[in-house]
C-alpha cells in the first residue's frame, strides 16, 4: 500500500495557468490510479480566494491556504506575461512582466511559508518554469541544484543556485522543471518517485504523452569535457 502523498499547488497573482493545470491534471489522474493515495489542491499564501493569472485575466480558485507543515509536495508555478527587463538592470521593469510578477511574491507572506517548507524534511518543494525563481530570489535555495526556463537560468545562477540546463532536476527534497510544458514531465516524475513507475506510465498512456528529457541528479562521476 502506498503512503498518501498530498500536493499543494500554489497560486499567486499573475501565475501561468499551464504551469498549474498540467501538473494538476497529471497528479489528479495519479490519485485515481492509486485509489486516492495521491491528492492535489490549489492553495494560496493568503488562503481561499480567486487568483487571477497573467494570461488574459483567467482566474482559478485557491480552495485553501498553503500549509508548509503538511507532509507532501509544495509546487510553485511560474508567471505569465511579457518578458520585460530583469529587475536590477537599468530602467524600470515593464509593469506586469514576468520578472515583476515573480518579484512581487517576495512582498507577500509566501517567502516565509516557503522557508518553513524548505526547512521541513517531510516536504518536497517543486517548481515549474519560473516557479523555482521564487524561493531562489528569497535566498532559500543557495547551493542547491535546480532548473527553470532557459531564459531565467542566469538569474537563477545569480541567486547562488547551481543552475542546470535540464528538463527536470531532482535535488532530493527540491525538484524543478524547465520551460512551461515541463510541468507535465515534472508531475509525471513526481508520480514515478512517490507512487511508482507503473502509476506514472499509466497516466502517460492516459494522456497520450511521452516524457521528454533526462532527469538530472547530483550523483555519479563528473563527466569529462568534450
From TrEMBL:
<keyword id="KW-0808">Transferase</keyword>
<dbReference type="InterPro" id="IPR002818">
    <property type="entry name" value="DJ-1/PfpI"/>
</dbReference>
<dbReference type="GO" id="GO:0006355">
    <property type="term" value="P:regulation of DNA-templated transcription"/>
</dbReference>
<dbReference type="GO" id="GO:0016740">
    <property type="term" value="F:transferase activity"/>
</dbReference>
<dbReference type="InterPro" id="IPR052158">
    <property type="entry name" value="INH-QAR"/>
</dbReference>
<dbReference type="InterPro" id="IPR029062">
    <property type="entry name" value="Class_I_gatase-like"/>
</dbReference>
<keyword id="KW-0315">Glutamine amidotransferase</keyword>
<protein>
    <submittedName>
        <fullName>Glutamine amidotransferase</fullName>
    </submittedName>
</protein>
<dbReference type="Pfam" id="PF01965">
    <property type="entry name" value="DJ-1_PfpI"/>
</dbReference>
Amino acid at each position: 500500500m502506498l503512503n498518501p502523498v498530498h500536493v499543494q499547488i500554489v497560486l499567486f497573482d499573475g501565475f501561468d495557468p499551464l504551469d498549474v493545470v498540467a501538473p494538476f491534471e497529471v497528479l489528479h489522474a495519479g490519485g485515481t490510479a492509486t485509489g486516492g493515495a495521491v491528492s492535489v489542491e490549489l492553495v494560496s499564501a493568503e488562503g481561499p480566494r480567486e487568483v487571477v493569472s497573467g494570461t488574459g485575466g483567467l482566474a482559478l480558485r485557491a480552495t485553501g491556504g498553503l500549509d508548509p507543515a503538511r507532509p507532501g509536495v509544495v509546487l510553485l508555478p511560474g508567471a505569465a506575461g511579457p518578458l520585460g527587463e530583469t529587475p536590477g538592470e537599468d530602467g524600470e521593469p515593464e509593469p506586469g512582466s514576468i520578472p515583476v510578477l515573480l518579484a512581487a511574491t517576495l512582498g507577500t507572506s509566501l517567502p516565509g511559508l516557503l522557508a518553513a517548507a524548505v526547512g521541513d524534511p517531510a516536504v518536497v518543494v517543486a517548481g515549474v518554469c519560473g516557479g523555482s525563481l521564487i524561493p531562489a530570489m528569497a535566498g532559500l535555495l543557495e547551493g542547491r541544484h535546480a532548473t527553470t526556463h532557459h531564459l531565467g537560468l542566469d538569474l537563477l545562477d545569480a541567486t547562488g543556485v547551481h543552475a542546470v540546463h535540464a528538463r527536470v532536476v531532482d535535488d532530493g527534497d527540491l525538484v524543478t522543471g524547465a520551460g512551461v510544458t515541463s510541468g507535465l514531465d515534472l508531475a509525471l516524475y513526481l508520480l514515478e518517485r512517490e507512487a511508482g513507475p507503473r502509476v506514472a506510465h499509466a497516466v502517460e498512456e492516459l494522456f497520450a504523452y511521452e516524457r521528454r528529457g533526462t532527469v538530472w541528479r547530483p550523483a555519479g562521476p563528473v563527466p569529462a569535457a568534450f
